[in-house]
TrEMBL record:
InterPro entries tied to this protein: EvaA-like (IPR005212), EvaA-like_sf (IPR038153)
Pfam family, one: Hexose_dehydrat
Protein name, UniProt field: NDP-hexose 2,3-dehydratase family protein
Occurrences of domain dTDP-4-dehydro-6-deoxy-alpha-D-glucopyranose 2,3-dehydratase (ranges): 13-215, 229-425
Organism in which the protein naturally occurs: Streptomyces lancefieldiae
Gene3D superfamilies membership: EvaA sugar 2,3-dehydratase subunit
Length: 433
């Protein structure tokens, strides 16, 4: 197929028609099944860990955590161990001088609406090396056979530190000049158009959001002393957060009940481990089974922002999560699952909950990683606040400019995946920088 595109002066009506057509004629089925019905996945009889017969993809195992900070100092939980580094890559090409980004209509088994807008390539190493014995990942060659002068973004970024053990993906944006054959489930879109789509619930997926958040700013001037102070604050938090983790057998996680079709916390909070059977018409493999993590309720993720001397500042939280490579990453002001806080809430959550509508600049429900999580949604918000926050701030909170936060995305292990979604929304949807 020749290169079709939606130019910067065209509305998204044609996109929505295309999306509706794909949705209506795509045959997908995702069903909960007992663990005993998993194919090529086994529960180890000794440890209870869930592993694939090939030894690839990922393992569901146990993790014991000890932390000197926070309301809970010790716990154990299931966690996904996926040590391989996947590729999240977007191709960009200029049409009439305007950059367009090649986006994919992709099915993931955990997506609440099955199809979401995804990067050009979204593949684990097991997938793009064809460990599943399926078809080749489309456009993978643009990201494995690189010309350095065409690379706009290439950085390792973490995923959910509460559910993944030291998981990272290679976030990439590669510019091309030659004609790119356009496959059926792909479309070129401008950043403005993607920004519009970011206001639609559960449309732009997590992997697209994290890649686009890493786009470099057109201007990088700033206060060198302030940047040094920011890095020193973050380093101090990392150095003083004493979090110890230990991998344990899944059977040994405490307060988690193992049932025929789920592993769930005894109080009904947090998340469950479940199994699904999948049939798909647009994937490299047409049917499979797998485990997924399913959260118990809608999460809330929010940045409080303010404007100082004409520049946008965000209230960031240096938060520890047990699966992070360096224990701590910079996250949003508020990031929590209300159902897991029956007797309270984290700092500043009340400001988000009680915010006047005129202070809310962004408010959209977006899905998390649909390849590993089932029906995982967060309400993502950006809210402007007065300067009447309590002073001094807690030591792990700090005001920093959006420019500083975006600058940190050129480096690994600084900014968590939830904060990256909000950076993407602020830049593409709100036009902030």
């Amino acid at each position: 197929m020749s290169e079709a595109r939606y130019g910067p002066d065209r509305s998204l009506d044609e996109f929505h028609s295309w999306w509706k057509e794909l949705t209506e004629r795509s045959a997908f089925r995702v069903e909960r099944i007992p663990f005993a019905d998993l194919r090529r996945w086994r529960m180890d009889p000794g440890t209870g860990d869930i592993r694939h017969d090939s030894g690839r993809f990922f393992t569901v195992e146990g993790l014991r955590v000890h932390s000197e900070r926070g309301p809970v100092h010790s716990w154990s939980q299931p966690i996904i161990n996926q040590p391989e580094i996947g590729i999240l890559g977007i191709l960009v090409k200029r049409f009439d001088g305007v950059p367009h980004y090649l986006m994919q209509c992709k099915m993931e088994p955990g997506n609440i609406n099955v199809l979401q807008l995804s990067p050009t390539v979204q593949a684990t190493r097991s997938n793009f090396t064809r460990a599943h014995q399926g078809s080749q990942v489309a456009y993978i060659e643009y990201f494995t056979d690189l010309r350095p002068d065409r690379v706009l973004v290439d950085v390792l970024q973490s995923e959910h530190g509460s559910w993944f053990l030291r998981k990272r993906n290679r976030n990439m944006i590669v510019e091309v000049e030659e004609e790119v054959p356009l496959r059926e489930n792909f479309r070129w879109l401008t950043l403005d158009q993607i920004g519009e789509l970011l206001r639609v619930d559960n449309l732009v997926n997590m992997d697209a959001r994290t890649v686009l958040s890493c786009l470099p700013l057109s201007h990088t001037s700033g206060d060198a002393a302030a940047d040094t102070a920011l890095r020193s604050w973050f380093t101090e938090i990392c150095a003083t957060h004493n979090v110890r983790t230990q991998s344990i057998p899944l059977r040994e996680v405490e307060r988690w009940e193992h049932r025929a079709d789920e592993i769930a916390h005894e109080d009904g909070h947090h998340f469950k481990v479940v199994a699904v059977s999948v049939r798909a018409t647009t994937r490299e493999v047409s049917s499979w089974t797998q485990p997924l993590f399913q959260p118990c309720g809608l999460g809330v993720v929010a940045f409080l922002i303010r404007r100082v001397a004409g520049e946008v500042q965000v209230l960031a939280h240096a938060r520890a999560e047990p699966g992070f490579v360096d224990v701590v990453e910079i996250g949003p002001t508020v990031q929590y699952q209300p159902s897991s806080y029956p007797d309270g809430s984290p700092p500043f959550a009340d400001l988000v909950r009680d915010a006047a509508p005129e202070r809310i600049h962004y408010d959209t429900v977006l899905s998390e990683e649909g390849g590993r999580f089932r029906n995982a949604e967060n309400r993502y918000m950006v809210l402007e606040t007065d300067d009447d926050l309590p002073e001094p701030l807690p030591e792990d909170y700090r005001w920093l400019t959006l420019r500083q936060l975006t600058g940190l995305l050129a480096h690994r292990n600084y900014v968590n995946v939830q904060a990256r979604t909000l950076v993407c929304a602020m830049r593409l949807t709100l036009g902030l920088s």
